[in-house]
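If you are new to this repository, start here. Below is one unmodified record pulled from the training split, so you can see the exact layout before writing a loader.
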Amino acid sequence: MLPTLLICGVDEAGRGPLAGAVFAAAVILDESRPIQGLADSKKLSEKRRKELATEIKACSLAWAIARADAGEIDSINILQASLLAMRRAVECLSPTPSEALIDGLHCPKLLIPCRAIVKGDSSVAAISAASILAKTARDTEMLQLHQEYPQYGFDQHKGYPTAMHLDALRRYGACKIHRRSFAPVKLAIANQLI
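And here is the target side for that same chain:
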């Protein structure tokens, strides 16, 4: 028997990187199967995130992960792409939640009520769970993309604008998964054209 009010937590990962998709996850936790140690994914080690992601997938009533790729980010901007990925994740949930609690300041357009909660990934367990799933899914994809584009070091920085990544951009220019609307990538492309 499902509870009458199904609340899902929603969070994204990957707004800041210069490459790759932005990911979002939505999670409906099962109150009868509590998960110990849920926290903002940024405050957990990679090993602990992976352990918790496995537990979240096994113990939740429902979970979903969605993404918006670099082309969508460039087309509609990173905020709108993040909200799009969130909407996609929520729409994939079965059963359908009664309400969505969103980490941050903005809510995606949903057919159910939603509330934005600043620092929700630190204060709401379902949002913490979503942040962990979004982060681990994005990291996994960036590790796979490293195989295709090893010269950029995506396995090290996951697309974030580290000194190593910026140096690789200067040396090799932008690849297919770089976000062309982001200033350092625009600069690298402009320099390639000179």
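Two things worth knowing about this chain: The first strand starts at residue 7 and ends at 13. The mean pLDDT is 95.
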